[in-house]
């Protein structure tokens, strides 16, 4: 029934999750929608087909997401299966066999369904100038998903018995409804979606999302994705709605700017939570929007200092990005990138970011640190450390966004058109060089797909 063979493996294992795919593809598409001159040419199989390569790559993942949608004629038609993985955790290291008999699609969820509605609607409008047929396919899938989410009983994921993959549990879904309504409204202009998004903007959690202390967005908190998509298409809504969304973004960016001054290592950190590096990167996206809107150099300086933190100016003198910095990460928690080439396992390519310090570190390599180490030092560059050194698509995607943004702002030779109110007056060559080399590495990581990725 399902054709879910495409798509990216999610993290250090071989699972695929629609709710983590959603924010990952949104981040890359948002980068393109904000500035269509970004990442148009990449070393991927489809390059040269007259479609911007960043959209080509997102299409690979979106095809997986659409492949998880229940076909017409079946129970729960239009709903989307939450995830796809094995029933037990695969060993480490491990190369997946070229078969699917030991991998299973799990029960459809409302969250996954709304993730597809949002992401497919977003892709529909972006790819329409290049591939009208695929744009129509995406829009049909998006509207089917919205309709199914509205008509079927809500199914919220909690703890699913067994292992082999993460739960990605989520009990608050108003943000998914809001995000999906935003993307569908921008793409279609239909009053149904506009009415829904405006209603959601009265919800306290939607209002507070963009200044949450640990970051404005993550896979289970997607309201800010809607805010930012609406910002790029502000003329489609009334003045009051535009102003409300703008104020939410700017107030969040200001909170994160102030967090930098409160943290000893000059980074917008509140708690060193699981995936703390991605929390930083997602805050930087909001600060980039604030810099574009206001020209306030403090926001841009915050981006620069925070990238310094990720590259090694931190309590560990450790770069959390493979291949960059004086002391880069080498041994991510990953079943394939384990650097045992005699056994057929390569080292990680440059440009992979790990989760970073986790004050609740809980694996065999780091659990002892909770009582011995300062929270900023609870990290191990160790393949066993899934709680501090795993890698995931939703952490690498904001690294792409922020690196591309810094390259755009600082590097006059990037070939990328500058978007925003105030270009910088003095070019910092060191920052431009860092952004450029990270983007080069990311081309080998995020956009490294091979035809055998099944």
Folded structure, characterized:
This protein is an all-alpha fold and 454 residues long. The protein folds into two domains: 1-237, Glycosyltransferase (Alpha/alpha barrel), CATH 1.50.10.10; 263-454, Glycosyltransferase, CATH 1.50.10. Helix content is 46%, strand content 3%. It is built from 14 helices and five strands. The protein has helices at 18-34, 53-67, 110-127, 132-151, 174-188, 191-200, 204-208, 223-232, 239-262, 276-294, 297-311, 369-372, 393-410, 429-445; strands at 16-17, 80-81, 83-86, 103-105, 108-109. The strands form two sheets. Strands 1-3-4 form a three-stranded antiparallel β-sheet. It has a two-stranded antiparallel sheet with strand order 2-5. The two termini are 16 Å apart. 52% of the residues are buried. Mean pLDDT is 92; it is low at 450-454.
List keywords for this structure.
single chain; 454 residues; mainly alpha; Glycosyltransferase; 2 domains; three-stranded antiparallel sheet; two-stranded antiparallel ribbon; 14 helices; 46% helix; disordered C terminus
Give the N-terminus to C-terminus distance in angstroms.
Answer: 16 Å
CATH topology of the largest domain: the name is: Glycosyltransferase
- Gross CATH architecture of the largest domain: Alpha/alpha barrel
The best one-word shape is globular
Bin the strand percentage. under 5%
The helix content is 40-55%
Instruction: Name the helix and strand elements from N-terminus to C-terminus, one letter apiece.
Output: EHHEEEEHHHHHHHHHHHH
Structural class: mainly alpha
Low-confidence segments, given as residue ranges, are 450-454
The side-by-side strand order for the widest beta sheet comes to 1-3-4
| Cα-based radius of gyration, to the nearest Å | 21 Å
Look at the structure and give the mean pLDDT: 92
């Amino acid at each position: 029934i399902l054709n879910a063979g495409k798509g990216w493996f999610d993290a250090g294992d071989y699972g695929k999750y629609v709710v983590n795919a959603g924010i990952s593809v949104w981040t890359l598409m948002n980068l393109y929608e904000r500035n269509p001159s970004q990442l148009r040419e990449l070393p991927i199989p489809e390059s040269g087909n007259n479609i911007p390569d960043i959209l080509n790559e997102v299409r690979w993942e979106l095809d997986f997401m659409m492949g998880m949608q229940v076909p017409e004629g079946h129970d729960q038609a239009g709903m989307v299966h939450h995830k796809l993985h094995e029933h037990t955790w695969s060993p480490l290291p491990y190369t997946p066999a070229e078969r699917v008999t030991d991998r299973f699609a799990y029960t459809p969820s409302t969250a996954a369904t709304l993730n597809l509605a949002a992401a497919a609607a977003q892709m529909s409008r972006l790819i329409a100038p290049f591939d009208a047929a695929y744009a129509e396919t995406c829009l049909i899938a998006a509207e089917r998903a919205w309709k199914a989410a509205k008509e079927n009983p809500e199914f919220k994921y909690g703890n699913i018995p067994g292992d082999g993959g993460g739960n990605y549990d989520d009990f608050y879904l108003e943000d998914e409804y809001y995000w999906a309504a935003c993307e569908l409204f921008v793409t279609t202009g239909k009053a149904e979606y506009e009415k829904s998004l405006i209603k959601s903007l009265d919800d306290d959690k939607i209002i507070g999302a963009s200044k949450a202390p640990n970051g404005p967005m993550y896979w289970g908190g997607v309201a800010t994705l809607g805010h930012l998509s609406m910002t790029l298409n502000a003329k489609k809504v009334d003045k009051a709605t535009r102003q409300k969304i703008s104020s939410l973004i700017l107030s969040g960016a200001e909170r994160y700017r102030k967090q930098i001054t409160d943290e000893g290592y000059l980074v917008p950190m509140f708690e060193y939570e699981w995936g703390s590096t991605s929390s930083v990167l997602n805050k930087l996206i909001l600060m980039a929007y604030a810099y574009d809107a206001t020209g306030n150099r403090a926001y841009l300086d915050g981006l620069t200092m925070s990238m310094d933190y990720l590259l090694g100016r931190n309590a560990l003198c450790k770069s959390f990005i493979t291949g960059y910095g004086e002391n880069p990460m080498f041994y991510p928690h990953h079943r394939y990138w384990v650097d045992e080439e005699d056994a057929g396992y390569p080292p990680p390519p440059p440009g992979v970011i790990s989760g970073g310090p986790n004050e609740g570190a809980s694996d065999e390599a780091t659990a002892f640190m909770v009582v011995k180490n300062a929270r900023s030092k609870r990290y191990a560059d160790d393949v066993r450390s899934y709680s501090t050194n795993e890698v995931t698509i939703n952490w690498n995607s904001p690294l792409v966004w922020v690196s591309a943004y810094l390259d755009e702002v600082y590097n006059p030779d990037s070939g990328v058109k500058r978007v925003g109110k105030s270009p910088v007056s003095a070019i910092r060559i060191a920052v431009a060089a860092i952004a450029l080399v990270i983007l080069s590495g990311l081309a080998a990581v995020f956009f490294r797909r091979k035809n055998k990725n099944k």
